[in-house]
TrEMBL record:
The gene is Cpne9. Residues 289-490 form the VWFA domain. GO terms for biological process: cellular response to calcium ion. The keyword Calcium applies. PROSITE patterns: C2 (PS50004), VWFA (PS50234). This is CPNE9 protein. GO terms for cellular component: plasma membrane. It comes from the Eukaryota. Keywords: Calcium, Metal-binding, Repeat.
Length: 532
């Protein structure tokens, strides 16, 4: 896959503890990264040591791969500096824990955290600035042609195509682009094509890009015509002049004294454009608003029975609670007020036992928001004790409710994510399809987690990955639904942390693309983070 987004962290500290009697401390910051799904921490790197200051601004930066869909836990330790090679507790200046998503989700990508860890002392603060490395988002468009390529086919001329490879750190090559085949010519002109810079060279402009020229054969045994090497930097010079490359076939070169080349390839045009990324929008102030809807229909089974999908034992959360926690804990880093509207559907609600498909879990119609994921969990458990599980399973009301909110602000400053957790036996399929098709033109995404043993064909249809969802002849403008069955993530070894991290990863992986597709179709540019 294409290398992911790279984020650069800049570190400063303010008001560090003064440990040295004769001069100020000589601080250094060590970054540890938590190994996904375990409690183990690995040292990632350290800044330089700055002598004699309590307010260091470190020059050495940390460059991390960033994944929206994963909880990437970081720990910053401030040992006392260079003079004690062993990190002894006696001179420890403090530490801070933070998720990478929290830094990126902070205003303008800046986060200040108190340092803790020295009992009874104020340890000052650590300041983190996250910036996406700019060359991650450039997209190149280029066009090539060739002249006098070797004739490979017995009857006609050759049918040439090009294959591009980027070189990896370890000297191996990874294929990153194939042109189309131009039939029966030794002087082909290929169509222009676009490719992300990071796919071409992983952001390193001087890294080798290898290009092979082949003659296409129907049976798949394409004949090698020759090869040439270049780099992104060399290709980019073509903005001002044509660049001509000699195509060489090493085998022929060895055999024939008079061999010159197997033809030439000319770079006709080369241009670069910047693409906006998910991080640009988040840093520009786009807020993700997270709403939860939980299935309270009778098909889940009585919550007091161990066979119920809502059953929570003293030792284990229910499937509903686990799915909510897994997804919510990542999303909440991007939601500044940490207030989540939470609804239930398909139950009879007190006092008069009316069936409701969008009752607030906190029982407050005026303000259905719960404080943090913990608040949602609390209200969910409270509701289980007060409502009567009933039916039918209607999704449309809660989808329309969130769509109504999303429709109020469409300038790109707000984006809504609705998490529906359900046992999947849906009653209002037609209305739900209609609601999703309407919502597909709004700044929102829907995540559906299916719990329990049901067959989830209806959910797969809503997901729209295979076939674009439609309702009464209208097609969804974009794919906004992501469905996963919870049972695929409950592993037998019982490592819940790891399997829930995998669940979150899979349901959240499409959100950045869905947000970008909304912004793109509306031509909304990220707001520039105000210069300091």
């Amino acid at each position: 896959s294409v290398p992911g987004t790279k984020v650069e962290l800049t570190v400063s500290c303010r008001n560090l503890l003064d440990m040295d009697t004769f001069s100020k401390s000589d601080p250094v910051v060590v970054l540890f990264v938590q190994v996904s799904g375990s409690s183990e921490w690995k040292e990632f790197g350290r800044t330089e040591v700055i002598d004699n200051t309590l307010n260091p601004d470190f020059v050495r930066k940390f460059v991390l791969d960033y994944y929206f869909e994963e909880k990437q836990n970081l720990r910053f330790d401030v040992p006392p500096g260079s003079h004690s090679a062993l990190l002894g507790a006696q001179d420890f200046l403090g530490q801070a824990f933070v998720a990478l998503g929290e830094v990126i989700g902070s205003q303008r990508g800046r986060l200040e955290r108190p340092l803790t860890g020295v009992p009874g002392k104020r340890c000052g603060t650590i300041l983190l600035l996250a910036e996406e490395l700019s060359n991650c988002r450039d997209i190149v468009t280029m066009q090539l042609c060739a002249n006098k390529l070797d004739k490979k086919d017995f009857f006609g001329k050759s049918d040439p195509f090009l294959v591009f490879y980027r070189s990896n750190e370890d000297g191996t090559f990874t294929i990153c682009h194939k042109t189309e085949v131009v039939k029966n010519t030794l002087n082909p002109v290929w169509q222009p094509f676009t490719i992300p810079v990071r796919a071409l060279c992983n952001g390193d402009y001087d890294r080798t890009v290898k290009i092979d020229v082949y003659d296409w054969d129907r049976d798949g045994s394409h004949d090698f015509i020759g090869e040439f090497a270049t780099s992104y930097r060399e290709l980019s010079r073509a903005q001002s002049q044509f660049t001509v490359y000699e195509v060489l076939n090493p085998r022929k070169k060895c055999k024939k004294k008079k061999y010159v080349n197997s033809g030439t390839v000319t770079l006709l045009s080369f241009s670069v454009e910047s693409e906006f990324t998910f991080v640009d929008y988040i840093r520009g102030g786009t807020q993700l608003n997270f709403t939860v809807a939980i299935d309270f229909t009778a098909s889940n089974g009585l919550p007091s029975q161990p066979t119920s999908l809502h059953y929570a034992s003293p030792y284990q959360l229910s499937a509903y609670a686990l799915a909510l926690k897994a997804v919510g804990e990542i999303i909440q880093d991007y939601d500044s007020d940490k207030l989540f509207p939470a609804y239930g559907f398909g139950a009879k609600v007190p006092p008069d036992g009316k069936i409701s498909h969008q009752f607030p879990l906190n029982n407050n119609v005026e303000n259905p928001s719960c404080a943090g994921i913990e608040g949602v969990l609390e209200s969910y458990l409270q509701s289980l004790r007060t409502v009567q599980l009933y039916g039918p399973t209607n999704f449309a009301p809660v989808i329309n409710q969130v769509a109504g909110t999303a429709a109020q602000v469409t300038d790109g400053s707000q984006y809504h994510v609705l998490l529906i957790i359900t046992d999947g036996v849906i009653s209002d399929m037609l209305q739900t399809k209609e609601a999703i098709v309407t919502a597909s033109s709004l700044p929102m995404s829907i995540i559906i987690v299916g719990v329990g043993p049901a067959e989830f064909e209806a959910m797969e249809e809503l997901d729209g990955d295979e076939v674009r969802l439609s309702s009464r002849g209208r097609y969804a403008e974009r794919d906004i639904v992501q469905f996963v069955p919870f049972r695929d993530y409950v592993d037998d070894s019982g490592n819940q942390v790891l399997s829930m991290a995998r669940l979150a990863k899979d349901v959240l992986a499409e959100i950045p693309e869905q947000l970008l597709s909304y912004m793109k179709t509306r031509d909304i540019k990220p707001r520039r983070a105000d210069p300091e």
